[in-house]
Amino acid sequence: MITGSLVALITPMSPDGAVDTKKLDDLIEFHINEGTHGIVAVGTTGESSTLTHEEHANVIRQVVKTVNGRVPVIAGTGANATHEAIDLTRRAKEAGADACLLVTPYYNKPTQEGLYQHFKAIADAVDIPQILYNVPGRTMCDMQNDTVVRLSAIRNIVGVKDATGNLERGEALINAVPEDFAVYSGDDPTAVALMLLGGKGNISVTANVTPKIIAKAAEFSLLGDAEQAKAIDATAALLHKNLFLESNPIPVKWACSQLGLCSEGIRLPLTPLSEQYHSAVRESMVQAGVLLV
Questions:
Q1: Computed from CA positions of residues 141, 55, 98, 10, in that sequence, does the dihedral angle turn out positive or negative?
Q2: Closest CA relative to residue 25, chosen from 37, 44, 39
Q3: Which residues are catalytic?
Q4: What pLDDT score does 27 carry?
Q5: What is the pLDDT of residues 22-59, one digit of tens each?
Q6: Where do the domains of the chain lie?
Q7: Which burial class, exposed, middle or buried, applies to 14 when counting CB atoms under 10 A from its CB (0-12, 13-18, 19+)?
Q8: Sign of the CA dihedral 27, 28, 33, 38?
């Protein structure tokens, strides 16, 4: 089981929008040195929606090669067309990813039965560990706990990223799925609380900026040390909030650019962080101790 702080890695881009492969390698080394427990490549934060399929596969291949087995690599391969998700998942397996992260189909709003059949078809088609991803705030598609429980019976569906931020619902899900099925947080502000309830890790946006803090908070959470986990996480509380002042990954890419980890390059229809939010994001980075006043 993959556990701990799993960074939802940004995809660094040059100002013209091209993928910056040199900065991508540097980011991976940065995270491994800072204690991040796993890399999630080309998810929402990695701008998967604006990469071509070839770019998508190339980023996964590069991450797998550079990581070289030092931490697990989870590849984002979700899509709103089942055949497209199967194709991306096959490419991730061929690239050597340890697991795949599959977001619920967006825009077309399938039924719960449609969600079950979608994820079952992908699991049947590609023999690689698969993690479901429920983020209704972005997709307008909410996979209910009963559907997740039903899917947890499929051998290679091994977990779910719950980005609802609803702790009552998350706890109910943890209690309903098999012990070997991992529930991960996809909501930084409530991640420590979910892990203390039995969640197995945090697929984190904030970890792009403060990997050491998020890794330590996850470690203490998984040990059941609530006092230490909450104290460490509190230093990043403002960052958890301010990294969503505009749509993710706009603020986190700007924050990473301030640390020299990448340029501000981002692809349309996303645009660089509005100047009115610069001071708020900078203040939260100072509070977290990653940027000097």
A1: negative
A2: 39
A3: 133, 161
A4: 98
A5: 999 999 999 999 999 999 999 999 999 999 999 999 99
A6: 4-226
A7: middle
A8: positive
